[in-house]
Write a structure and sequence with these properties.
CATH superfamily of the largest domain: Medium-chain alcohol dehydrogenases, catalytic domain
Largest sheet: 7 strands, mixed
Oligomer: single chain
Order of helices and strands: EEEHEEEHEHEHHEHEHEHEHEHEHEHE
Structural class: alpha/beta
Number of strands: 16
CATH class of the largest domain: Alpha Beta
Radius of gyration: 20 Å
Number of domains: 2
Bound molecules: zinc ion
CATH architecture of the largest domain: Alpha-Beta Complex
Length: 355
């Protein structure tokens, strides 16, 4: 089969590689849609501390079961499926405490290789984080399961009310997913703070108020909008240390700040202790997802609460992945759908790439 292999940072090779065959308890999936993500772009440009190169590439995908291991029950060739590409062990210290996202097995066993005709899933992933895809859900929307599970994980720590004001900082796909996920929780007053005017315009299409501003300079406007209090909930989606600091500053007394975007390894952050203690701002920086988060993400997608067209800016054939990455680097997207087996699944219903 044809697959993209990330040989070293900046060097992607589109090669013939052996078509995988399933383990006894695993399956092989024919990929119908794989989505680009910010992590892909970062990994392509500079590598990733948790991933060894060379590697097969791409981790957000949905497709159709192409081959089934002898011990797999309940799945057949041809079944349409969606999947979040990791699985916890289920028995370690963290797993028994319901912190499966922190299980040491999660990251080393992550499935890569969605930018290929076929991808192989180990049994643990099949048993834990694989769902049958309803016919009504396009493959490219179903491929949002993983990023949406990460969003759900962060929000699982938040106690929101319908009368809350939420501020979401950043302009990428993760911001747009947070908007939709918060709405599904009944939060209507959502302000997006985005620096890039084009990103701001994309957020506006969701009907939210957008401040085109640097988060470090948005305090005055956010306080004006909230009777001087600050936001009940702030979600940071940039992975920039200074924006982490700004996020805590934008929260009201007794409010919550979700610092979603991972910052570069080794960086440090400073907050005034007053904000955490006397102002009792609760801060959480969520990592990855648990099987419960995947379930909630699945439910949101199936219910149509989150739509692919809001974050997927265009579609590309498999061989055109480099062009999609280049467009991402130039600020396009915020996501692109790569369709390794053609577009024959009735999913061309979204916004199209206009760059
Ligand atoms: Zn991703
Ligand atoms: Zn575990």
């Amino acid at each position: 089969m044809k697959a993209h292999v990330l040989v070293q940072p900046g060097q992607l090779e589109f090669r013939e590689v052996p078509t995988p065959s399933p383990d006894g308890d695993g399956v092989v999936v024919r990929v119908h849609a794989a989505l680009t993500c910010g992590t892909d772009l970062k990994t392509f440009l500079r590598g990733h501390p948790k991933f060894a190169l060379p590697m097969l590439f791409g981790h957000e995908f949905a497709g159709e079961v192409a081959a089934v291991g002898a011990d797999v029950e309940g799945l057949r060739e041809g079944d349409a499926i969606m999947v979040a590409p990791t699985a916890p062990c289920g028995t370690c210290y963290y797993c028994v405490r319901q912190q499966e996202n922190l299980c040491p097995q999660v990251m080393p066993t992550m499935v890569h290789g969605a930018y290929a005709e076929f991808v192989k899933l180990p049994g643990a992933v099949v048993r834990t984080n694989l769902y049958e895809k309803p016919l009504s859900l396009p493959y490219r929307d179903a491929a949002l399961l993983e990023p949406l599970a990460c969003v759900e994980h962060g929000l699982s720590f938040v106690s929101s009310r319908p009368d809350d004001t939420a501020v979401i900082i950043g302009g990428g796909a993760i911001t747009l997913l947070h908007v939709q996920s918060l709405r599904a929780r009944g939060v209507e007053d959502i302000i997006v703070v985005a620096r890039n005017p084009r990103r701001a315009a994309e957020a506006r299409t969701l009907g939210v108020e957008v401040l085109v501003a640097d988060a470090r300079e948005a305090g005055e406007q956010v306080r004006q909008r909230t009777e001087g209090r600050g936001a009940d909930l702030v979600v940071e989606c940039t992975g920039d240390v200074e924006v982490w600091q700004a996020a805590v500053d934008l929260a009201r007394v007794g409010g919550q700040a979700v610092l979603f975007g991972g910052c570069p390894s080794g960086t440090e952050v400073r907050f005034p202790t007053d904000r955490l203690h006397y102002d009792q701002v609760q801060v959480i920086s969520p990592f990855h997802f648990t099987p419960r988060d995947v379930r909630r993400a699945y439910d949101l997608l199936v219910a149509g609460e989150v739509a692919g067209a809001t974050v997927i800016g265009g579609e590309h054939a498999l061989e055109d992945l480099p062009a999609a990455l280049e467009a991402l680097r130039a600020g396009g997207g915020p996501k692109f759908a790569i369709l390794p087996n053609g577009a024959g699944n009735g999913t061309r219903n979204g916004r199209h790439n206009s760059e």
